[in-house]
Each structure stands twice: as C-alpha cells, then as structure tokens.
Amino acid sequence: MDWHQQYIGKVKKAVFQTQKAGRKRVVVSTEENAIAALDLRHGEIFWRQMLGVNDAIDEIDIALGKYVVTLSSGGSVLRAWNLPDGQMVWESFLFGSNPSRSLLLTPANFGADKDNVILVYGNGYLHAVSSIEGDILWKKDLAQSGIDIQHLVHPEESDTIYALATRDTSQFEAYAINVRNGELLKHSSMELPGGFSGDLSLPTSDKAVVLDSSGSILVSISFVGGEIKFQKVQISDLLQGYSGTAELLPSKLAGMVAVKIDRSLLIIKVKDEGTLEVVDTVSHVEAVSDSLSFAEAQTAFGLIQQDGGKIQLTVKSSNDWKSHFLKESIEVDQQRGLVHKVFMNNYVRTDRTYGFRALIVMEDHSLLLLQQGAVVWNREDALASIIDVTTSELPVQRDGISVAKVELNLFEWLKGHLLKLKATLMLATPDDVAAVQRIRLQSAEKSKMTRDHNGFRKLLIVLTRAGKLFALHTGDGRIVWSLLLNVFRKSETCENPRGLKLHQWQVPHHHALDENPSVLVVGTCGHNSDASGILSFVDVYKGEELNYLAPVHSIKQVIPLPFTDSTEQRLHLIIDAEGYSHLYPRTPEALDILQKELGNIYWYSVDINNNLLKGHVVKKNCKYEIADGYCFESNDLWSIIFPSDSEKIIATSTRKLSEVVHTQAKVNTDQDVLYKYISKNLLFLATVTPKAIGDIGSVTPEDSWLFVYLVDTITGRVLHRMSHHGCQGPVHAVFSENWIVHHYFNLRAHRYEMSVVEIYDQSRADNKDVLKLVLGKHNLSAPVSSYSRPEVMTKSQSYFFTHSVKTVAVTSTAKGITSKQLLIGTIGDQVLALDKRFLDPRRTVNPTQAEKEEGIIPLTDTLPIMPQAYVTHALKVEGLRNIITIPAKLESTTLVFAHGVDLFFTRLAPSKTYDSLTDDFNYALLLLTIVALVIAIFVTWIWSERKDLQEKWR
C-alpha cells in the first residue's frame, strides 16, 4: 500500500570524485538546500543531508580528498562532511557585520603544510579555517563602503592570495594577503573610466576580464606584482557585425572567457600580455562548463548546443582550440526543455585514452548523465518542489474506451514477453531480471491503468516549481506522463513565470466515456500582485495541453463555483488585483448560469500586511471601458480592521469545500442532542500581539497574547473569540465539520499546545419533540442563512503536545461516517496519526460509565504519541511541506499523500476496515467452514428424516 520516493531538487553545483578506485560519485548541492552524493553508475543516492529552510548553500567543494566542504547561510556557516558516508565532521560559524557575496577557496596544497587552509569570504570578512579541525586560524575585515569582493585567487605554490574587488562599480581593488597569518601585504586600486557592469571573470591567476558599464567594451585587468593595468577592446572590433546585448558568462575557463551574445557564444583567449583574441564563435549554445584539468597540463571544457530535443556535446581543448576531444549528439525528451547547466568529468577508457561524461541540469529540474553518446540515467528532481496537488479518476475498464493511450504500446508488450522468456530459460542478465520485476509490478492489480470499485487507484496530478506537470499512479508512484507547460517557460513576455494552483476544470460523469477529465493550471508572470496571469488547460488522461491563455489579467484569488455547464466544465471566478471578478469558461452558457446567481456569490480577502479582513459580493457587470462581457464588479459588504499596535494576523484556515458531513446531530451519553454548526462560510483566524511576531522566545510571556477568531465570511460577524495569554505562533490549524484544532507555543509552560474548539447550533436545540418531527413543524429542514443571527455554543479544551509541527491535515472519507484522525507533519519530517477522540473537549478526569461506553477518554494534560501511530513508519519525508487526504470509494479508507523533497503515499483506515476483509484474511478456513456447515446441515437433515420416519412407524 505504501511507496516512498527520494529526490534532491534542482542541482546548483556539482563536484566529481572519481580518482580513487571503487564507487564513482558526484557530490551535488541543490536549491532545496540538500547535499547529496550520487552514484555515477545508476544515479542513486549514496547519502543525503538536508539543511534548514533558511540555510541556503552558497558553495561546495572537496578538501583533502575526503571531506565535502559546504558554505551556507550567506557565508556564515562552514561545514565539513565525511565523503564516504555523509556524516558531519565539523562545523564553524563565521560571524561578520556586512552582508556580502559568499566565496569559498579550497587550495590543493600550501607547500609543506599538511593542514590545508580553507579560505572563506562572507559578511565582509575573510576567514582562514583549518580543513582538519574546522578552527578559525585568522580573519581579516575587508568590508569597506562600496567594496564588492568577487574572487579569491591563489597562484600555485605561493603563500600569497589575492582578493579582487570592485568599488562603486568604477574602482578595481586588489588585496595581496599572506595566507599563513592574514597579514595584508599590498593593496592596489585603480579607477576605470566608464565603470563595470556585471561580474569579473578570471581566465588566469593573474588576469581578470570584465565588461564595462555600456556592455560593449571588454576590459582585461592585470593585477599581479602590485601594478594594475587595463586594456580595453571593443566587442565590435572582435566580432564583425556585432549587435545585441553582451553577457560575460561566469564559467571558469583556462586562459579564456566566454561572452554570450543572444544565443551565440564568443570564445576569447587572453594572451600573456593581456590582449584579447577571438578564437571561435559558436551558435545555439545553451551552457558552458568550467575547465577540467586532466593528464599532464591538459585542460578541456564542454559546450552544449541544443536544437529541439537534440543535444550536441562538444568537449574542446583549452590548449589547442582547433582540435576537440569529443563531439556527440544525444536525443532527449523535448518535455525536459532547455539545458541550464553542465558539469564535466573525465575517465580513462580501457584503451588508456581519455573519455568524458557530462552531468546536465535541464530546464524542468531533471538531472541527466551523458556518456558515450547516450543518456546513462536521469532523475526527475522537479518532484522535490511540488506546489500543488489534485487527483483524477482513472478510465473505466469497458469496451469502447481506449485505455491504450496510457498503457504500454505493442513494442513494449513484445519486449516484456521476450524478457520473461529469457528469464524462464535462465538467459536473463541482472538488468533483464530487474526489468521483468518492474513489468510484473506494473501489471499487478494495484498498478492497473483503470479505476477499481474501491477507488484506491487514482492519478495524482502534481504541479512543480519548474512549471512541469506530472501524473503519478497511486498504486506504485510511477510517472504516467509528464508535461512541461510552454506557457510557464521564461520568455520575453513573461520573465519570471511561476505556478500557483491546480483546480479541477472538467470532471465528466462516469457514463461520459468520450470525455476526458481536465485540470486548470493557474500561475502568474512575477511575484508582484499586479503581475499578468497565466491559465493552462490540460487533459488528464493524455497529458496534453488543450488550451492556454497568457498573458491575462492579474490573479489574486481563484474561486471554484458549485456550478457546471452542459459539458461538465466547472465555473470559476478569478479575482484580479483591483477586485474585479472574471468568469471562466468564457462561454454564453456559463454567463447565463452566473447571471442567475448574481448577488448570491460572496468572497472574502485577507490582507495580512494591512491587518484587514474584508467581505465582498459579486453584484454587476464591469464598466464599459474594461468590460469584455465576462467581467464583474464586487461590492464591499463588511470589513474588520485589527489595530496594528495590538494585533497582527498570522494564520487563517477554512473547511474543505468537498468535505462530506454524515450527520448534523451528535447524541451525548445523557441522551441530549447537540446540533453541529456546519457552515462552509466560517473562517478561522489567528492574531498575535506585535511583540510576539518574532521567533519563539523573543518575547516575555507577559507581553505575548494569541487571539483566535471564528468569523462568518458572509456577514463579517465574529461568532467566537478566544485568547491564549503567554502564547506565541507559529499557528497551524485544521478546520473540519464543526471543530477546529490549532497548534501554538505556550511560553509560560515552555511547551507546545494544541487546542480544540467545537461549535454547536443552539437555535435547533429544542428540536427534540417527536410529535413536531412527525407533523413536520420542526426547523431542521429550514434553510440555514448567515443573515439569521445564529445562536451558537462552543466547547474548548487545550492539551500539551510534544512536537513542533510543520503542517496539519485531517482524514476525509466518502460519506463522512468514519471517525476522524489528525495527520500531523512533525518537525522530524514524519506524519503522525492522532485520533480525534484525544482532542474531545468533553474529556474529564473521571468519566462516567456512560461516557466511557461512548468512547470518551479520561482527561490528561498531554496528548499521547504512540510509536505505532506514525503513518510513515521509520521513513522520513524530508522537507515535508503538505499532507493531502483523498477519500476512497470504500468508506473506511482514506488515501494520504505527503510531499516535500520526498514523496510518500499510503492508505489509512481510521476506524479499521469495518466494511471489507483484510488482505491476510484466511479464505481457505472460511471455505472449509462453509463446506463443514453444508455437510453438517445435510447430515442433520438425514437424521431428522429418519427420526420422523421412525416416529410415524410407531
């Protein structure tokens, strides 16, 4: 039932470790703050370490051939990890005053000194750190006003290092420092008329190259020996017919610099005297690797050219440009997009010649290893950055529907049978045996591509930060299809596209076999509130984009409406930054449906920055100057302004729109009936005092208050307010049926707490007369309106809880009959299932016998955590972000999907599988029992007949 997948995220930097015999590996750092060692043979993870969310990795390198050195947190934390197993060896905290870029230099050798010194620049200070113990040997303050240090240079067999910097974009600075004691040997500076633009490139240990502020002149700088010399050259003199914008690439090339003009690459050699000479111009270049040293004084680097799905890898020699070591063309899936980065490594072939392998990072965050003209392995690491998840039913297994579009094709079917035949004849290789096992797993009952009667088999549609959409099978977690949405790729019209949400767009009824379900993907072209919006419509079964709209109006909020048109497309209102509502789909039929409901569509907005909560109603069409027929204006109905000097909004939560409530009544042990106050318009909102906004412990308990509100979003009426004195956020809340559970920190008790609030409708409390019920004079069937002032009663209770929490969810089932469990994502990246009965506000220290029979647990001050209650067992979902629950058709079962950097899926039965037999049920014993009963019935019938006959003869 369970599956668990591990990922690392988009690779930022990679360092190969292949010199020694044994396991060949590459150590990578990623955008998800992961450090991992990958097997170069299969791409599997040898080991992985996850740093904190705010501990971004700046640089990575290998020191002494046995330590992986990482610099993170803006140059503040330096760590060494053991290369074979990833265990941390030492950790150093480097303090500084001025934020700056982070630089890491791990020299190969400092003469006879065995304890190699690691040089780190960060926060305005240059530190020298022992690579064995992690001790800080010395530090030098280089932070001066306007100075930006860009490179640390260590010439071979020298005790001097150079720190190269620019000041105020026009002054070049060079510091010569003694590596053993940090003494400043020399400081030279020189002003460049015209100034700099961008970063310095360092082709050799004594020369730098930079673009001037106009972007049309290359400047070479010689700085060794205490004398700084500039030499300028126009790019138009180097390249005839030059036009466009020049960009100096940060790739470290031996004796050369790379200038990118549009998609062409200009390779320029820096001569000994500092003059520049164009070596070659290469078109359609997507990525350039750093220089790779091998053999004796030979260096090479790789170029990647791309045309559609065809990638050409060229490995050029830095010494002799006319010759190249390697030129290969490889076909890759076009759904991977463009090449973003390439890292090169060399190896020795059996004929003692040098071969090359390339590690490539693609636009969709996937990682590929190219070797000998083929893709050796690939990793779909976009799944480490899932933004949103929705589900879809699989096709019905019935004549007339084509399931072959998502099943294996004829070639794969024949290949599978051939592999099985080889395995039967014992001719299969280990790879063939693994392939047969994969095929058997895919053909298993839980992995079929059709829906089952229990509703366990579904498609998980996930949107990733890379703008790629995946369909995962819930049976085994395999990728059924993936689609890189073109509209979410960087372009001239959309510089910074990002995905926001997934919505069910079209969910055909099970009898509509000719229709496929589809989803709506919503995104924007930037992080600003007024950025243009992106809409994409994708077929769930085929994995094809049906249509897209981009750029459209800004997108602030998406409201799925409870209406569908004749094609079963769900109506959506998209609210823009100005508060206008836009209807989708843009069809006359959808417009007619909305016009009938105009005035009954309400929505609310939460402005955390301004401490404002507002309610709105969609009233009329937009004004003529912005009208397109599908635009509507909203009127403000109410607003709640929290005084900024006393309260700050920190968290909100609402009920799931799709949640099913089985019954409104709740019967107590004394036969008293309570009626749940069930409204989809309730909003949970938490605020804290301004002093308590910071981290836990940053305020005294006397100055910290946490306030909790239950607000009706139609009228703005506050139904309930509760305060927690001496408590602080962060607050994590879950809202289900008529109860809310929220988690926070109690400063007085120095412990986390969880509180539950249940809300009941008192206006229906007198509906207990059976005669009224029979005569129909009760008000249970009367419509509930938010405008009729509700008489509500609340019950609440607080409990201590051991763990810090990342996210909270609640199980959901098809009919809402099964008891609820809270799914708590702990700080240890595991999922804990906690029975809702532990969070019952009616718990008492000494419950009566009737209360015990009802299932009320005796009151304790702390919520119990049982090891068996961990849904993830011994596994961790690294970087856990969210927990999704999906009801199955079987009422007792809910499907749980947890995602972060890792993925985890399982099935849960909070009340056990009371409506189905377990997988380990003994069918043989049942059959034997039935047969024995039939025989017994037959024998007793014969005995009875004989006895009756004997009685008659008497």
TrEMBL record:
Provide the membrane topology annotation: Single-pass type I membrane protein
Give the matching SUPFAM superfamilies.
Quinoprotein alcohol dehydrogenase-like
Q: Where is the EMC1 first beta-propeller domain?
A: 1-381
One GO cellular component term of this record is: EMC complex
- Superkingdom of origin organism: Eukaryota
Q: What organism is listed for this UniProt entry? A: Anisodus acutangulus
A single Pfam family, by name? EMC1_C
Keywords for the protein's UniProt record, in alphabetical order? Endoplasmic reticulum, Glycoprotein, Membrane, Signal, Transmembrane, Transmembrane helix
Keyword Endoplasmic reticulum in the entry? The reply is yes
Q: Domain ER membrane protein complex subunit 1 C-terminal spans what residues?
A: 736-953
Q: Where in the cell is it found?
A: Endoplasmic reticulum membrane
Q: Which family does it belong to?
A: Belongs to the EMC1 family.
What is the name listed in the Swiss-Prot or TrEMBL entry for this protein? ER membrane protein complex subunit 1
Has keyword Endoplasmic reticulum? yes
Instruction: Please name the InterPro entries in this protein's record.
Output: Beta-prop_EMC1_1st (IPR058545), EMC1 (IPR026895), EMC1_C (IPR011678), PQQ_b-propeller_rpt (IPR018391), Quinoprotein_ADH-like_sf (IPR011047), WD40/YVTN_repeat-like_dom_sf (IPR015943)
- Where does the sequence pass through the membrane? 921-944
One of the GO BP terms on file: protein folding in endoplasmic reticulum
